[in-house]
Amino acid sequence: MLNCRPGRAHSWWRPTVATDFRPNMQCCLTVLVIGWLASSFVFATESEEFLPFGESAVEGRLPELLAQAPPATPAVPPPALAPIPTPSLTSPGNLPNNFFPTPRQTATAGLFSQFRGTPTRNLSRPMLTAPNMFGDTTDGGCGQAEFLAGSVPASLEHPTFNCIRANLAENNSPLPRDRVYFRYNHFHNITDVSIFPDTLSNGVSSLHVDRFTFGGEMTFLDGRASLEARLPFARQLTSDVLLYDIQGAYNLPLDDYRTELLNMQFILKYILLERDNFVLSSGMGLNVPTAQDFNIRIFVDDDDFEIILPVVGQVGSLPVDIDIRGTVPNNIWNLSPFLAYLWTPQPRFFTQGFMQLDVPLNGVTGTVEGSTGIASAPIPFGPYSAELYQQTLMRFNVGAGYWLVQRPEARWFKGWASILELHYTTTLNDASIVPFDVPLVTLPDPLPPVTLNASVLVGNISNRADILNLTAGWSFILGERTTLGVAGVVPLRDDADHPFDFELNVLLNYQL
After folding, report:
1. Per-residue pLDDT for 73 more than 90?
2. For 427-441, how does the pLDDT look when each residue is reduced to its tens digit (9 = 90+)?
3. Domains with residue ranges and CATH for the chain
4. How far is the C-alpha of 228 from the C-alpha of 265, rounded, in Å?
5. Residue 454: its pLDDT value, please?
6. Which residues contact 166 (CB under 8 A, 6 or more apart)?
7. What are the C-alpha distances in Å from 505 to residues 139, 175, 450, 484?
8. Which of 31, 84, 209, 447 has the most crowded Cβ, counting Cβ within 10 A?
């Protein structure tokens, strides 16, 4: 990865390769924001066709062009218009049925109203030109499993262990819309694996997740409400994790990727308040546990296994016979009430945001069982079971943008908006961390025999989460019905609140 630090005499900003392969957060943030601002400014000002305020070089030659223009033809007065009947409060008179556009016409015109020339009141409401928010991640209160024996010889995070929850701001708008869409997210170094790092080579690795989401949204109640469905898949570390060591042959680094179905989500949205340049909406999201369960098996049959010995804390080679099996079912349902707003104080500038609660409705029963033997016969244990609960999350998502290009007359490239977003996720209660005691070895002396145990901790080991991420990107209007968005996301905090190194976010929406 790239790490930026002060250079020598003739290079004040010099990239070097970091030994820990994790990017410097200040460097990533600086490069992302400077690149976003510079490319937006250069593209918007280098061509008179794309001047940000609709200016043109023709304006400077206006007197010359007027002098060359042919004489104006005398204007012909327009024919007199018939008076429009004034309806009363009880009788609309003879007005046509479509004289007042319905809220559904308003919603379906949506983002493209000023570009299609749709004959509705959207022509004077620039708020409907705001693109969808990008969002950031579904992380928050994710679960880990740690194997403790004096130190921390093994730990594993998994993307489906309490991590596939709904972030309603992702590719969403406070306005109900008729659309189908596809979303792609790449999370770089989001899954951390550490398996006996003091004794095994390749025991530490960070894995990526590529997420693919298909979705659709349909309006009803004359466009004041909508129902959205999301169907996500991910190429990630398999949910059936197997760690083995058979006489020195082990499967590290752990990189068993598989494409799996994640939790489906449904979102109900309704407009509470609507003004000329402001919308306030609310609704409810439902996270449905359609992803598969998380299963892990640790199998070791090695007569010369290097391990940190309990009590003494030194590395030694001992015969080890271990077979541990654990399961965390994925059957937690989540409800997510939310409020969202959209405000456009002027035709080119917009700001919007989502505030969301993520409330788990139930817990799950995790189990672990097996046998362990270190320099002794295997000692069976379990099955042990315990209730595991997700933490309640609060998410704040706010963004602002500016239309650098608005070209209603163009055929393909009709608009370009530059967008910045800030996303904050916090846990509202302590984590449910469950310990299991696993027998390691029985010491025959002193009498009576003493069994030394290790502990397996399951849950959000960090207890709380306060994740703050920054998103910067662009949204493009292509043709009559298509929008394309591309953005980058970087975490602004470190340690446990640094869920990934960076994220690539691509949105493709097609309006129905």
Report:
1. no
2. 999 988 888 777 766
3. 25-48+104-511 (2.40.160.40)
4. 8
5. 75
6. 138, 230, 263, 265, 267, 285, 286, 287, 334, 336, 358
7. 15, 21, 55, 11
8. 209
